TrEMBL record:
Keywords: 4Fe-4S, Iron, Iron-sulfur, Metal-binding, S-adenosyl-L-methionine. PROSITE patterns: RADICAL_SAM. One of its GO terms (molecular function) is transferase activity. NCBIfam families: rSAM_HydE. The gene is hydE. Binds 1 [4Fe-4S] cluster. The cluster is coordinated with 3 cysteines and an exchangeable S-adenosyl-L-methionine. [4Fe-4S] cluster binds at C55, C59, C62. This is Iron-only hydrogenase maturation rSAM protein HydE. (3R)-3-methyl-D-ornithine binds at S130. The keyword Metal-binding applies. InterPro entries: Aldolase_TIM, BATS_dom, Elp3/MiaA/NifB-like_rSAM, FeFe-hyd_HydE_rSAM, HydE/PylB-like, rSAM, rSAM_sf. Pfam families: Radical_SAM. Its cofactor is [2Fe-2S] cluster; [4Fe-4S] cluster. The keyword tRNA-binding does not apply.
């Protein structure tokens, strides 16, 4: 089975969908219908554990970039990560997303040990890693240790644009290679990009859609670009909420089977952003399971939501909000629909 839609949408159509604010409702409805046909009203939840905000990279848009000396840095211990997972398990989470900056402390041995330990304690959970770029061999070891999925947004599929968002030390080609490596190894792979990042054009967004059509990821995460006051991009405005909603719908239309989160950035730019994201075709939520003490320090952008309803502990509030939006939270691993548990492969 193919993860993408067999139908080809030409650049002209995509351009109109991306740019025309009057199409938001129509696209949202079309996408919601496609999602309903495949995944029904189900919304999958993932407990997000932001285990380190230490990063060797210096992405110009990111609040935890290496050069930002105003961030208080933290790193959770293995025991702390495991205790987040235990709490999450009690709350009904069956996927844990371990996300962090590119922190050299987390060697293959250390991550392998954490993945194996969580899987030993909870044998029915899926583990998603989001640790940035690593070598093929490293990814392979992590997969063999039991990690199921890997999130690595391509950020942009336009080389010139990539070079405007990142310093010279980072490579457009490496990023794409990493995504292809992950897919080849067998991970359920998640790509994605920001909407409205500085210097982005409609053409670069179309390139993102084309790259994803080629990659056929199981998951696609997008959110609006959000200003962070301590970055070189502090004077650029936030991305557009409406355009992000249209892009969520476009993704659902292009990738009917994909797992698409209504992201934290979407929930930050608008108080009903995540509900609107679900209504636009998204089917995943990733509430924060990190210890409350460190949440504010994972400040990728300004005003990132991280307390109250956002907290994974508030499972009941979340369930109610989602129910009111017309959807139902389910407790299971929530693999992509074409995934085979025996072979750990998806088609
Ligand atoms: N605004 C929105 N999203 C951001 N990310 C990083 N910085 C920002 C920002 N300022 C996104 C990137 C990254 C993901 C973890 O968060 O796309 O891949
Ligand atoms: Fe590394 Fe943002 S620059 S996580």
């Amino acid at each position: 089975m193919q993860l993408k839609n067999n139908k080809h949408y030409d650049d002209k159509t995509l351009k109109r969908w991306i740019e025309d604010d009057s199409l938001t409702d129509e696209l949202n409805k079309k996408a919601d219908a496609i999602r309903k046909e495949i995944y029904g009203d189900k919304v999958y939840v993932r407990g997000l554990i932001e285990f380190s905000n230490i990063c060797k990279n210096d992405c110009y848009y990111c609040g935890i970039r290496k050069s930002n000396d105003r961030v208080e840095r933290y790193r959770l211990t293995k025991e702390e990560i495991i205790s987040c997972a235990r709490l999450g398990y009690q709350l009904g989470y069956r996927t844990f997303v371990l996300q962090g900056g590119e922190d050299g402390h987390f060697s293959d041995d250390i991550v392998v040990d954490i993945v194996k330990s969580i899987k030993e304690i909870h044998d029915d959970v899926a583990i998603t890693l989001s640790l940035g770029e690593r070598s093929y061999e490293s990814y392979k070891r992590l997969f063999e240790a039991g990690a199921d999925r890997y999130l690595l947004r391509q950020e942009t599929s336009d080389k010139d644009h990539y070079e405007k968002l990142h310093p010279e030390s980072m490579s457009f080609e490496n990023r794409r290679k990493a995504l292809r490596d992950l897919k080849e190894i067998g991970f359920q792979v998640g790509g994605g990009f920001m909407v409205g990042s500085p210097y982005q054009t409609t053409e670069s967004l179309i390139k993102d859609l084309r790259f994803l059509e080629e990659l056929e990821p199981a998951m696609i995460g997008i959110g609006p670009y959000m200003t962070q006051h301590d970055t070189p991009f502090k004077d650029f405005p936030n991305g557009s909420f409406e355009m992000t909603l249209r892009l969520v719908s476009i993704l659902r239309i292009l990738f009917p089977y994909a797992l698409i989160p209504a992201t934290t950035a979407l929930g930050t730019i608008n108080p009903l952003g995540r509900e609107r994201g679900l209504q636009a075709g998204a089917n995943v939520l990733m509430p924060n399971l990190s210890p409350t003490m460190v949440r504010e320090k994972y400040s990728l952008y300004d005003n990132k939501i991280c307390t109250g309803d956002e907290a994974a502990e508030c499972r009941a509030c979340l369930e109610l909000r989602i129910k009111n939006a017309g959807y139902e939270i389910v407790t299971d691993r929530g693999d992509v629909i074409t995934y085979d548990k025996e072979t750990r492969r998806y088609s």
